[in-house]
Write a structure and sequence with these properties.
heterodimer, A: about 425 residues, alpha/beta, seven-stranded mixed β-sheet, five-stranded parallel β-sheet, globular, B: about 290 residues, mainly alpha, two-stranded antiparallel sheet, 11 helices, about 70% helix
Chain lengths: ~425, ~290
């Protein structure tokens, strides 16, 4: 999940670690041309990520995914249609700042990248997209969620992951479908969302979606992220007797809301996060085992049924000694979207690569969706968040039906009043 | 509806106690030094980290950590006053204001460098403890925080009334020149006041860690409310700050329960503006009104 505000679970990596990464990347950059002249050409790809600053922790996870994918491609013989050309990643650090996003993008374009990947925050994306449009450079958005980033007739900007609208409506849709098949239909829905851009957008979608899906939005409570207490807000929700409580928030607020809801005996069938920064976050789950058990969350995820996803997770675990995060999955997959386009374009020309990305129809991927295809605006028409539920301390996919790895526990007994 | 009302009143009062203690420190500093201390929230954040690390590294209960962080932050407060604020005593008021803002930014970024933006929580055995009174939820750590805040604020009030140092602080707050003329070491007393204010907010930080989280910008959750409380209770009025804390806590909680959307913030800040317009000396009078 990305946002326009600092992310609650962010941990900046040390400068040293960033420099090591940069050093490694530039070492590759220096080495590659020497080899390249002798054998195949190289394909320069730039990334602009907030690898230092408030989003550094998650940016690093996404970057790990990028590096894993690039090494896998290069190790398997590079881009075949380009005579085995290797992908060279050129680094850019935005520190989650708009000006730096622009200047880093411009610098990388100057250095001749074929495409750019980034930049996490929607706010930075809004600005960088003008740089990439002007320079006619394909720009693959990573973790950027705001709906309107692709508005305005852009040609070079593409988004693989679900936008806010898909995230909100498909998660609620999945939940309603699941409840129906469990024999406990949902009629009354309440939402609590933080009152910034991210939460408000989610709230708007849930409200607009009510008529279409046939549920009643009985309570909508925007709240201030920094509020030290949510007892009154949750009491108001409880008094409205919803079947479902949706929560779109960041880390600290989401934690206190879940805790207070439990103590208040909120009396819903389920507590469901919408792209929640905490509820499917392994760190949060590990620190709050009892509280998080059977929490739902709609979020980016990988397809647990995919053998390829399993292999990628193993490779990630081996290389980084950690479980691949959903941001890592996004980073990994977006490189393969570009690889697929490069193979078909058989060129490093930006215009030709853009054409190829626009015609993407990629079925071999590790996401919880059908083939990756882009519409004219650059949105992935099949982008789908997974519906997750924490079971035995681990988020498992319980929807959509064809990706399910475990049976959902619904209604959740512990949230009963 | 009656349940919702009582629930909102109870959670408002529990929150108000903590606001009150944070604001008491701020009010004391204002009364004596005549500066608005923007670093107050940042000092609270440092206090919370101190309690967090004492718990993680030594296993010290956050409530007991007060015995360490109280004196420690008294000393830190005196140090900040001596090194940063006292030399700028004669500078223009807005410069002093910017100075404390600078201190706040310095501490927040220091915390970001030292401990990253990670959210940390202290899990003690009573973190999740709660009970119901006629269906109204009372969370034990919040009750302890509110009760503790009131006790400490009252103890400090007694200190200001009864001890020589306390009387010196009050004298300085009411009539700086006179205090100086009767032989009070005003520079030292200013340091003591800043120290007490800092200790207050560090203790408030320790009291909230069992049910809250610790992060570099966590002070902001309480800081702005503390300003409202100080204005409400009367600038420099120590007990007024405590009562003001309860009023703001109640207004916030009832606003959240009975008004749509994010209007609760509007209620609190509306109160702030109205009091400033109609009763700038605060509901209970300013420095003279103790």
């Amino acid at each position: 999940m990305s946002s326009d505000q600092r992310d609650p679970v962010a941990t900046p990596i040390g400068r040293r670690r960033f420099l090591t990464t940069m050093g490694a990347a530039s070492a590759v950059a220096l080495a590659a041309p020497a080899r390249g002249r002798a054998q195949a050409r190289e394909v320069k790809v730039g990334y602009i990520l907030p690898v230092t600053g408030p989003l550094a922790f998650e940016a690093q996870l996404a970057l790990n995914g990028l590096l894993l994918a690039v090494d896998e491609i290069n190790g398997a013989g590079g881009i075949k249609s380009l005579g085995g050309a290797k992908i060279t990643l050129l680094p850019g650090d935005t520190q989650n700042k708009v000006e730096l996003g622009n200047s880093e993008a411009a610098r990388l374009i100057d250095q001749g990248v074929t495409a750019l990947i980034g930049p996490f925050s929607s706010l930075v994306a809004f600005s960088v997209r003008q740089v990439t449009e002007k320079n006619k450079t394909p720009f693959l958005l990573l973790a950027t969620v705001a709906d309107n980033v692709l508005e305005g007739g852009l040609h070079y900007c593409f988004r693989m992951q679900p936008n806010a609208r898909a995230m909100a409506t498909l998660t609620v849709g999945n939940m309603i479908e699941m409840a129906k098949s469990a024999g406990t239909p949902i009629k009354r829905v309440a939402i609590m969302h933080e009152d910034g851009n991210f939460g408000t957008t989610m709230g708007n979608h849930v409200e607009a979606f009510a008529g279409k899906m046939g549920y009643e939005l009985v309570q909508r409570v925007p709240y201030n992220l920094r509020s030290p207490d949510f007892t009154a807000e949750l009491s108001k929700v409880k008094a409205a007797r919803p079947d479902l409580l949706l929560i779109s928030g960041y880390y600290g607020d989401s934690k206190i809301i879940a805790e207070t809801a439990a103590k208040l005996r909120i009396g819903v069938h389920a507590l469901v996060g919408l792209a929640n920064a905490a509820y499917s976050n392994p760190k949060f789950i590990a620190e709050n085992r009892e509280l998080t058990d059977q929490l739902f969350d709609g979020n980016y995820w990988h397809n647990p049924q995919s053998p390829r996803a399993r292999a990628v997770f193993e490779a990630y675990q081996k290389r980084y000694s950690a479980t691949m995060s959903n941001h890592g999955v996004q980073g990994y997959q977006v490189v393969f979207v570009l690889k697929d386009a490069l193979e078909r374009a058989a060129s490093t020309d930006r215009e030709k690569v853009r054409e190829a990305i626009a015609k993407t129809n990629l079925a071999d991927h590790i996401l919880t969706q059908d083939a990756i295809r882009f519409d004219d605006a650059g949105e992935n028409v099949n982008a789908t968040p997974a519906l997750l539920q924490v079971q035995s301390g681990k988020p498992v996919v319980v929807g959509p039906a064809r990706f399910v790895e475990a049976k959902p526990v619904f209604p959740v007994p512990k949230w009963k009043g | 509806m009656t349940w919702l009302f009582f629930q909102a009143v109870v959670s408002g009062l529990l929150l108000g106690g903590v606001y009150g203690l944070v604001a008491s420190g701020l009010s004391l500093i204002f009364g004596v030094l005549r500066i608005i201390n923007f670093a107050h929230g940042a000092i609270m954040m440092l206090g919370m980290y101190a309690s967090y690390w004492l718990f993680v590294l030594v296993g010290l209960d956050p409530y007991l950590s007060i015995l360490v962080t109280g004196p420690l932050f008294f000393a830190l407060g005196m140090l900040i006053q001596r090194i940063v604020i006292e030399p700028n005593r004669d500078a223009a008021e807005h410069n002093q204001l910017l100075l404390t803002l600078g201190v706040a930014l310095f501490f927040e970024n220091l915390a970001l460098v030292l401990w990253q933006g990670d959210f940390r929580t202290v899990r003690v055995w009573y973190s999740g403890a709660s009970f119901l009174v006629a269906d109204v939820l009372v969370e034990v750590p919040r009750l302890v925080a509110a009760g503790g805040a009131v006790l400490i604020a009252l103890a400090l009030w007694g200190f200001l009334r009864l001890t020589d140092a306390g009387k010196a602080i009050r004298a300085l707050s009411e009539e700086p020149e006179g205090a100086s003329l009767v032989g009070i070491d005003v520079a030292r007393i200013r340091g003591v006041a800043f120290g007490i204010g800092s200790a207050c907010v560090a203790v408030a930080g320790a009291l909230v860690t069992p049910f809250f989280y610790v992060a570099p910008d966590v002070g902001e959750s309480f800081n702005i409310m503390a300003f409202v409380v100080v204005v409400l209770g009367g600038m420099g009025n120590f007990l007024g700050a405590l009562v003001g804390g309860f009023i703001v806590g109640l207004a916030e909680s009832l606003g959240a329960a009975f008004l749509p959307g994010s209007l609760k913030q509007l209620v609190v800040f509306g109160l702030f503006v109205i009091v400033l317009l109609l009763r700038p000396e605060g509901l209970f009078g300013g420095r003279g009104g103790r």
